[in-house]
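thread: overnight batch results

M.L. [08:02]
morning all. the overnight job finished for the chain we discussed friday. pasting input first so we're all looking at the same thing
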Amino acid sequence: MARLEEVKLFSGTNSRYLADKIADYYQQPLGDLSVHRFSDGEMQPVINESVRGCYVFFIQSTFAPSENIMELLLMMDAARRASASYITAVIPYFGYARQDRKDKPRVPISAKLIAEMLQAAGANRIMTMDLHADQIQGFFDIPVDHLKSEAIYIPYLQEQNLDDTIFASPDVGGVKRARTYAKHFEKNLVICDKYRKRANEVAGMTVIGDVDGADVILVDDLVDTAGTLCRAAEIILKKGAKSVRALCTHPVLSGKAYENIEKSPLTELLVTDTIPLKRESSKIKVLPTSKLFARAIRNTHEHRSISALFVEG
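M.L. [08:03]
and the structure it wrote out:
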């Protein structure tokens, strides 16, 4: 059997809260990396140990501000120039993923640009979770390990009482995601059909399907201002549902999101820790991703299957 290269784990500045937990599960301390900043804010990451010939994993979610993306690019460039054998960008939350197509004239396809920048900086592999659209994987010419939050949420939901549960998608684009849960638990699926006049503002919504007397779970990949989720919860309850809660992988939670959630009829909002919460809320419960990422990193290094992490049995 061929010798495995040494693994080095490093964290970006704003993802240290998660990288520490991943390193704990991996049973290896994070590598020594510092970021020097010039007086004008320009940054210079410095890897303070040898990475020559190593499998290097940089853990950094690219949520706002965009500095997180720049820092990740610079860290990878430093490792490439230091002769790292293989560089993986571990991006729990892949920012700019909502801009994956031209939906109006004269706009960028930002997700494609970010993909090209990551590859140009030296990434040999990308590891991420719940991309806004699966086809973003096609923007890369390198392997993409697309982890699924079902591996976290399904075991949690199996411990709950789901006798009268129906799963729902808050929009047509998320039907495939919600159907995964409905199929696994052998439950019905309903769809909320929405339309917008502008970004982050829902102009209208219709529920397709029967929710009378049911406990409804809304399924989405991210929650930003929470306008869609809260509007969906209100309409579903008006249609006769007993309760509504939601699960969303990435808690972007910008603007008045916390106020919207706390004032909404949502019983509970389940999120993961791909993005740190700005503040606590009695309605928001965070489930950890660190164990899943640690196992995926180990499987990558040992050339074992990643999809096996999501296979039942």
